[in-house]
Write a structure and sequence with these properties.
Strand content: over 45%
Number of helices: 0
Order of helices and strands: EEEEEEEEEEE
Number of strands: 11
Distance between the termini: 40 Å
Helix content: under 10%
Length: 124
């Protein structure tokens, strides 16, 4: 069983940066990819970014447009999401998710483990 805990959210101004962290604990039988999703009030959960177990493969949602960067440090069981040039449209709860054998990495239903989320609020 894998537990994921997000941190690093907060209230920032438009144009600012934030770094979110996802700490994994527990045991996994297999290496897994880790993704970030976000969900704004009244909207569906949206794919933000994905990183493979070894970090060699990364994928981003179309809206990211070079502003965000995902990374991981397996020695610390951590996955990070560096977010730059934030706008009010980035306001949401950000979730960390772990998944094996992903067919569609942008489909939240394919992920096996989820954290509880961290709130990011960007004021304009």
């Amino acid at each position: 069983q894998v537990q994921l805990v997000e941190s690093g959210g907060g209230v920032v101004q438009a144009g600012d940066s934030l770094r979110l962290s996802c700490l994994a604990s527990g045991e996994s039988d297999s290496p897994y990819a880790t993704a970030w999703f976000r969900q704004a009030p009244g909207k569906e959960r949206e794919f933000v970014a994905l990183i493979s177990w070894k970090g060699g493969s990364k994928e981003y949602g179309d809206f990211v447009k070079g502003r965000f960067a995902i990374s991981r440090d397996n020695s610390k069981n951590m996955v990070y999401l560096q977010m730059n040039s934030l706008t009010s449209e980035d306001t949401a709860v950000y979730y960390c998710a772990g998944g094996w054998s992903l067919v569609d990495s942008q489909d939240p239903h394919q992920y096996d483990y989820w954290g509880r989320g961290t709130q990011v609020t960007v004021s304009s």
